[in-house]
Every structure is written in structure tokens, then in C-alpha cells.
Amino acid sequence: MIQRLLTLFAAAALLAACETASEVSSDASGGASASTASSASTAASSDAGSSSSSSAGSSSSDSASASGSSAGSASLTAEEQLTQIGTQIFFGFDSAVLSDKAQATLDRQAAFLTSNPALRITIEGHCDERGTREYNLALGERRASASRDYLVAKGVDSARIRTVSYGKERPAVVGSNAAAWAKNRRSETVLN
After folding, report:
1. How many angstroms separate the CA atoms of 184 and 136, rounded?
2. More reliable by pLDDT, 19 or 24
3. Beta-bridge partner residues of 106
4. Contact call for residues 80 and 29 (beta carbons, < 8 A)
5. What range defines the domain where residue 172 resides?
6. pTM to 2 decimals?
């Protein structure tokens, strides 16, 4: 009888833990809580050696110029133009600090958004699989906010930018190695 109760309890706990990313509110501005702060120290100490790889991974769009070809951009959709400019910003382990490469990509995004004032964007914050769900949601929010704040400082109206954190729920690359983790520590800009 006790074994059946334990089995039922374990099944209920498993189902309760299986939240989907769609249940995450569109504005995860709740930020870090006390439990998040305690899990932050656990996650930070789990791999302090990885902090030196601040922006591993690159996208082919990083070589696109800030203004693009005026003749070629007329035939592209806004989404295709943004993809050419670069939509992903990569971060170091347990960090929301923008590297020089990230700032260059955001500079191109700011120029694109300034020349297209009707467009609205969402900046998604993502993390690698390490750390608790709560900690990664807070870290993803900090990463998205860092990108948003940089664009706002460059003159983009903050009312045109929405942020959302997916934490570790939507990895770009599946895997449990340094290369996969580097690709998953990112913010991603998408058109609304």
C-alpha cells in the first residue's frame, strides 16, 4: 500500500515538473527570487572554468555589413534582411555581458530598426542546460534585457521591443558538451 502511494506521489511530482515553455509568461519580469539567488550560486560554482569562453560560436550573418546592399535589400523581406544582419548574440558562461562582437551585431540591428520604424521585435533570452530552471529563466531575462537596453541606448524606441526568457527550454543545439552549451547561451531577435 505504501509502495503504491509512493509511486503515485512520484508520478504526480514528475507531471508537475513537466512544464512547457509556452506556459512561461510573455514578460518574465518577475526576475530572480530568493530561491533563484540560492540556485545561482550553485549553478555558478558548477562550471567556473567555462567562463573564459565568452562568445564561442559564430553565425555566418556576422560578416554582413551594417547597411547591406540597397539594391539587394529591396527584394528581401524584413525577416530575411534581419537574418542577414544577424539575429543571435552569444554570451559567456553565467553571464549577460555583451562582447564586442555582440555589440557590433546589435549596432547593425539598431540601424535596421531605425530605418524600419514600423517593425516590432521580440528578444528571446536563452541558456544552456546547466543550472536550475528558475535560475536559467532569470539569466535568460538578463540576457534579453541586456540586448534590449543596448538597442534602446542606440535610439530604438523601447515600446517596439518585447523581451521573453525561455531559459534552457529551447536549445539551439542539443547536446551536453562545451560546443552545444556555447551555442545555447544566447539572445535571439525575432520580428513580431
Report:
1. 11
2. 19
3. none
4. no
5. 77-192
6. 0.62
